[in-house]
């Protein structure tokens, strides 16, 4: 649908702008690792590129570690709303996911909080479609990175509201179904990982189960 609406049948009269015409670009931060009180297992979601390298899902709620309110207060991390499109800007460039709840990230991201009139789906697929272009804009001697200024200047097409509404109406129920299925898959994977060692060690006996 993205290909059909915005590439194959793109309107030459659509406005050309930059990413900031699609949403607000927000970087991340890492609370001091020397302060254990800044981190927790059940706090404010805090995502790193490593989390997206492990979790290949479209939607993400939490990473390996959360941060505490104190950690948030004593860093420049920003809480971003559900629907934010996370974009890893270094090490490596181009991991993309959608926040399934309020979320923060480390400095390895230049995330986009979509404007209400644009929506998450268009920003998500626009970044995926233009990943190669964004990678070419990266700079750095030690490793390539997309800076905040560079991300904000990435060229973007701003379609008319009717076409955006059509696309969002198409994507919304599909995204909701994908989110539910991913949550179910993660729950089942967690059950497998907790039960399998017990079955292998004999702690649990499944011999009486009728299949």
What features would you describe in this structure?
The protein contains 7 helices and 11 strands. With 211 residues, it is an alpha+beta fold. It has one domain: Alpha-Beta Complex (Adenine-n6-DNA-methyltransferase TaqI, Chain A, domain 2). The chain starts with a helix and ends in a 10-residue tail after the last helix. The mean pLDDT is 93.
Helix/strand layout:
Blueprint: H1 2-8, E1 15-18, E2 23-26, E3 39-40, E4 44-47, H2 49-54, E5 59-60, E6 66-67, H3 69-73, E7 85-89, E8 93-99, E9 104-105, E10 111-114, H4 120-129, H5 131-137, H6 148-152, E11 155-158, H7 161-201
Parallel strand pairs: 4-9, 5-8
Antiparallel strand pairs: 1-11, 2-10, 3-6, 4-6, 7-8
Helix content: 25-40%
Count of helix runs: 7
Number of domains: 1
Q: Can you tell me the CATH class?
A: Alpha Beta
| CATH architectural label | Alpha-Beta Complex
Shape annotation? globular
- Rounded average pLDDT: 93
């Amino acid at each position: 649908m993205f290909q059909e609406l915005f590439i194959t049948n793109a309107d030459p009269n659509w406005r050309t702008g930059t990413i900031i015409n699609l949403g607000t670009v927000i970087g991340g931060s890492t609370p001091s690792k020397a302060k254990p009180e800044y981190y927790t297992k059940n706090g404010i979601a805090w995502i790193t590129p490593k989390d997206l390298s492990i979790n290949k899902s479209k939607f993400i709620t939490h990473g390996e570690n959360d941060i505490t309110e104190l950690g948030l207060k004593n860093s420049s991390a920003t809480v971003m709303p559900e629907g934010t499109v996370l974009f890893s800007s270094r090490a490596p460039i181009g991991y993309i996911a959608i926040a399934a709840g309020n979320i923060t990230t480390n400095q390895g991201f230049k995330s986009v909080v979509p404007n209400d009139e644009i929506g998450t789906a268009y920003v998500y697929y626009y970044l995926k479609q233009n990943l190669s272009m964004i990678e070419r804009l990266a700079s750095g001697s030690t490793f390539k990175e997309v800076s905040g200024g560079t991300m904000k200047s990435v060229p973007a097409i701003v379609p008319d509201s009717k076409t955006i509404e059509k696309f969002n109406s198409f994507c919304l129920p599909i995204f909701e179904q994908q989110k539910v299925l991913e949550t179910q898959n993660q729950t089942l994977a967690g059950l497998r990982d907790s039960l399998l060692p017990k079955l292998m060690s004999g702690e649990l006996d499944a011999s009486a189960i009728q299949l």
